[in-house]
């Protein structure tokens, strides 16, 4: 019989009940890191002749976010998205410009020159997080910690790691310390 008040058994019980939810996924998004672009605005007219402003995500951003989601979904291998808090770590790798002299390329690849280039790292973060909505988690409000870096590399990509923190979400409805014991 499991004692849910015992933290060790409680963790084991959670693992059993969330058996198909990931603990950590790591994946790569090949290609140049793409930052979230500003939404576009259109003035539209409804059937009654009234005008309104419509906001839309630019197609390049939407396509990149869909690609990020596809890469994550492929790595999850059928596991379900989580409703728990998560932390996200990612490294955005930018290709060293071919026009740079050999000495400068070598410094960049050794990490001695950092990519102070567009897109801004916070915009790359937005694209990654929005791309994972509904696939890895329900909403990016579940992301409680982000670690991010930009580097130069031989080829461009973004490497992403998502971990469940092991803590409880703010919308928890029952005190886990007072859960009824069960033999399920």
Task: Tell me about this structure.
By secondary structure, the protein is of the alpha+beta class. The protein has a single domain, classed as 60s Ribosomal Protein L30, Chain: A. Helix content is about 25%, strand content about 25%. The protein has helices at about 5-15, 60-75, 100-110, 120-130; strands at about 25-30, 40-45, 50-55, 85-95, 145-155, 155-165. It has a 4-stranded mixed sheet with strand order 1-6-4-5, covered by helices on one side. Strands 2-3 form a two-stranded antiparallel ribbon. Helix 2 packs across helix 4. The longest helix is centred in the middle third of the chain and has 18 residues, at about 60-75. It is flat, with a radius of gyration of 21 Å.
Task: Please describe the structure with a list of short key phrases separated by commas or semicolons.
4-stranded mixed beta sheet, two-stranded antiparallel sheet, 184 residues, 60s Ribosomal Protein L30, Chain: A, alpha+beta
> Can you tell me the CATH architecture?
2-Layer Sandwich
In spatial order, strands of the major sheet run: 1-6-4-5
Cα(first) to Cα(last) distance is 9 Å
Q: Helix segment count?
A: 4
Main sheet record: 4 strands, mixed
The percentage helix is 25-40%
Q: From the alpha-carbon coordinates, what is the Rg to the nearest angstrom?
A: 21 Å
Molecular shape:
flat
Structural category is alpha+beta
Order of helices and strands: HEEEHEHHEE
Q: How many domains, as an integer?
A: 1
**CATH topology grouping:** 60s Ribosomal Protein L30, Chain: A
CATH superfamily: Holliday junction resolvase RusA
CATH class annotation: Alpha Beta
Instruction: Compute the number of strand runs.
Output: 6
Residue windows where pLDDT falls under 50 for at least 5 positions: 1-19
The average pLDDT is 85
């Amino acid at each position: 019989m499991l004692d849910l008040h015992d933290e060790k058994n409680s963790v084991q019980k959670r693992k059993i009940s969330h058996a198909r939810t990931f603990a950590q996924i790591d994946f790569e998004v090949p290609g140049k890191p793409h930052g979230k672009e500003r939404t576009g605005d259109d003035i539209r007219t409804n059937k009654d002749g009234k005008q309104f402003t419509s906001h839309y995500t630019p197609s390049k951003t939407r396509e990149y976010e869909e690609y990020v989601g596809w890469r994550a979904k492929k790595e999850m291998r059928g596991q379900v998205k989580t409703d728990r808090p998560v932390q996200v770590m990612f490294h955005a790798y930018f290709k060293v410009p071919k026009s740079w002299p050999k000495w400068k390329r070598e410094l960049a690849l050794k990490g001695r020159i950092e990519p102070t280039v567009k897109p801004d790292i916070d915009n790359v973060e937005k694209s990654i997080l929005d791309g994972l909505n509904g696939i890895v988690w329900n909403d990016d409000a579940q992301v409680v910690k982000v670690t991010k870096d930009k580097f130069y590399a031989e080829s461009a990509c973004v490497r992403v790691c998502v971990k469940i923190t092991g803590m409880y979400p703010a919308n928890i409805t029952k005190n886990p310390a007072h859960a009824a014991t069960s033999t399920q």
